[in-house]
Amino acid sequence: MICYIIKLIYGGIFCKKGVYDMKSLVSASLLGCDLADIRSEIKNIEKAGADWLHCDVMDGCFVNNISFGTPVLKCVRKASDLPMDTHLMINDPIRYIDDYAGLGSDYITFHLEAAPDPQAVIDRIHSHGKFAGISIKPATPVSEVEPYLATADMVLVMTVVPGFGGQKFIPATLEKISEIRYMLDSMGRDKVFIEVDGGINAETVKFCREAGADVMVSGSYLFGAEDKSAAVKSLKV
Ligand SMILES: O=C(CO)[C@@H](O)[C@H](O)COP(=O)(O)O
């Protein structure tokens, strides 16, 4: 808890305080990299200017895919000092919060649809001094996330159906971003991040930014780019 309060006070890259007027942050999704060469992929994307490392944990139940879990994230933590943005696509996420906090995640995001008691998950993340993100799938109404906007540090709006990289951006999700930004502003919670994830590239990023998003997750676009610095720059709109 003390660590959490210190981060809130001092802000910096972890917290929106002081960076509200900055360009959007880029969180590089490691699902899109060559996992057999993850250390050099991380170094390259770090050098290219990515702000965070986005780590997609999938359990094969909440989503139809299995990606990686704690052993891989421990190695990621050792390979980089960038903030670790852990995205849990798993059922009943509270079971694993201690593990993902313990290995050094900075943000831990879970799915509203997967958590029987979302507030308990947020509280558990905060008890470790970590930032709590709550995510919704494209089909989930914004009204369902509203009760948690008072305590979450980030809202992740999925712009594709979660489970796989390389999908096409769903334009209907833009309205959700605007609605959430409006709700947060009305509550005076303008320092809460809105993150978007899925099909983010140099084109779709502009729409997301206009709608009010400030953290852009990108996998296939970033890791597939010849010039990674230019690709990162194109997302910092
Ligand atoms: O969470 C997910 C997919 O469920 C993402 O983080 C993807 O990894 C994004 O990949 P691209 O759409 O950018 O290729």
Automatic annotation (TrEMBL):
Q: Which UniProt keywords apply?
A: Carbohydrate metabolism, Cobalt, Isomerase, Manganese, Metal-binding, Zinc
- Which GO terms are recorded in the biological process aspect for this UniProt protein? pentose catabolic process; pentose-phosphate shunt
Q: How is the cofactor bound?
A: Binds 1 divalent metal cation per subunit.
Q: Name any cofactors this protein relies on.
A: Mn(2+); Fe(2+); Zn(2+); a divalent metal cation
The record places the active site at 56, 197
SUPFAM superfamilies per the record? Ribulose-phoshate binding barrel (SSF51366)
Q: Which reaction does it catalyse?
A: D-ribulose 5-phosphate = D-xylulose 5-phosphate
Sequence positions that bind substrate: 29, 87, 163-166, 197-199, 219-220
PROSITE patterns hit by this protein:
RIBUL_P_3_EPIMER_2
Gene Ontology, cellular component aspect:
cytoplasm
Keyword ATP-binding listed: no
| Binding residue positions for a divalent metal cation | 54, 56, 87, 197
Please state the Enzyme Commission number of this protein.
5.1.3.1
Q: Which Gene3D superfamilies match?
A: Aldolase class I (3.20.20.70)
- InterPro entries listed in its UniProt record: Aldolase_TIM (IPR013785), Ribul_P_3_epim (IPR026019), Ribul_P_3_epim-like (IPR000056), RibuloseP-bd_barrel (IPR011060)
- Family indicated by similarity: Belongs to the ribulose-phosphate 3-epimerase family.
Q: What does this protein do?
A: Catalyzes the reversible epimerization of D-ribulose 5-phosphate to D-xylulose 5-phosphate.
Q: What is this protein called?
A: Ribulose-phosphate 3-epimerase
Q: Which organism is it from?
A: Ruminococcus albus 8
List the taxonomic lineage. Bacteria, Bacillati, Bacillota, Clostridia, Eubacteriales
